[in-house]
Structures are given as structure tokens and as C-alpha cells.
Amino acid sequence: MTDITTALANKPVEEAIQFLLEQYPGAVAFSTSFGQEDQVIADIIWRNHLPVSVFTLDTGRLFQETYDVMDLTMARYKQAIKVYFPEAAAVEQLVTAKGPNSFYESVENRKACCGIRKIMPLNRALEGVKVWITGLRAEQSEHRQNMEIIEWDEHRNLYKYNPLIHWGYGEVLAYLEKYQVPYNKLHDKGFVSIGCTPCTRAIEPGENPRAGRWWWEQSQKECGLHG
To answer: Which residues are part of the catalytic machinery?
Structure first.
């Protein structure tokens, strides 16, 4: 772990990804939810012609604006984005047993929904992957402040590479502007972190960037994808 951390130190993102591709050819994947950070990474990957597998999780309850930026991104870069959906039978069982909005009733119910719609598809997407690239930034939440640029995911038996972990929000915006990268228009309406429609709201000035996610809860604002 020390060796790979040292090798990535101070490298530009594109060079770091190229190094990881050389170490693990055909086994580097990037998960995008089409947020601002993910759009930066996608642009770096495709503008530099890096052979990274790019995928997304469609929970079935995303904003139309998310589909819009996905469509714009595919048109702009002419690159394939593998889409993973939740298992239909599991969604049917959950909604039949607890209704369509059970996640509002308890943290347990919400995590059950996230598990079916996000975590199970993610685990399928990461089968055979050795390096998982994410768009996490330390500023996004207290939980993420302790994350490193590359970490070992014991549960999934792979490296998690967080190239933007030390980027500030201003750096993300500057990159999007410089390269005219498509982005989700909800960001212009106070939505900093964007997930499923019923579980996301705009935030007020001064609120934590994750305050709009699962806004009715007071617990740690994570779904389980990143701990």
C-alpha cells in the first residue's frame, strides 16, 4: 500500500490513472453519478483517451436533470457508459412489503432501499475490478475528511482511488468552466450533492454539502457505498 501511495504522490490525475492502468490493465473502473466531481473525472479520462471502464447506477428514482446530463455527456464524448439497474425482483419485494416511501420511516428502511437500489448493483459492477475510481472530496462530509487519495477496500478486495479528495469546490468549478464540461443544472439551484429524487433537496447557504441528502435524518449522511 505504501508503494502505490508513493507512486501516486504529486502526480496529475491523468498520470496517476495511467499508472494504475499499467499496474492493473483492464481492471480499472470509474463510477459516475454525473455530479460535478464525477464530470471532472470523466472529462479527464476521455480527453486523455484512458481505457477506463465507466459505469453508473440507475436506481430508478433519479432526477430528470440527471438523465439530461447523462445524455449530454454521452453525446459530447461518444463513449459508452455501462448502466446498472437494481434487481427487479428485489425492488418489487421491497415496495410490495413496505410501500414506495418506506425510507422516510426509519434509517433501517432507508438503508434497505439504498442496499437494493445502489449497493447490490455496485457490487455487480465491481466484480473483477482491481481499482475503483470515485469522485469523493474531503470537503463533502466529516466522514470523508479522513479518506486518503488511495485506500484499500477490504470488503471488496480492491483499491479505491479518490483523485479529487484534496480538491476544493472552487477547483472543481474552475475545471468545469475551463473545459466547458456538461453538468447537472440542479447544481445551479442549490443542489450540491444529488441522489434520488425523494431523498435529495437543495441546501441553504452555509449548510453542509451533504445536508440535502436524506434531509429528514440526523445520522451520518452516507448510503453505504463509501462506508
So the answer is: 223
Structural domain count, the chain = 1
In this structure, is the dihedral angle defined by the CA atoms of residues 208, 212, 217 and 221, taken in order, positive or negative? Answer: negative
Distance CA 55, CA 135 (A): 13
Mean pLDDT of 151-159: 94
Residue 197 lies in a domain: no
For residue 124, what is the enclosing H or E element? helix 120-125
Q: How much of the chain is in helix, strand and coil states, percent to nearest 5?
A: 45, 10, 45
Structure pTM? 0.92
Position 148 confidence tier, pLDDT thresholds 50, 70, 90 = confident
CATH number of the domain bearing residue 11: 3.40.50.620
User: What b/e string do you get for 19-51 counting C-beta neighbours within 10 Å, with b at 16 or more?
Assistant: ebbeeeeebbbbbbbbbbbbbbbbbbbbeeebe
**Residue whose entry in the numeric block shows the C-alpha cell 483517451:** 49
Identify the domain containing residue 58 by its residue range. 2-189
Q: Is residue 227 part of a domain?
A: no
Structural domain includes residue 206: no
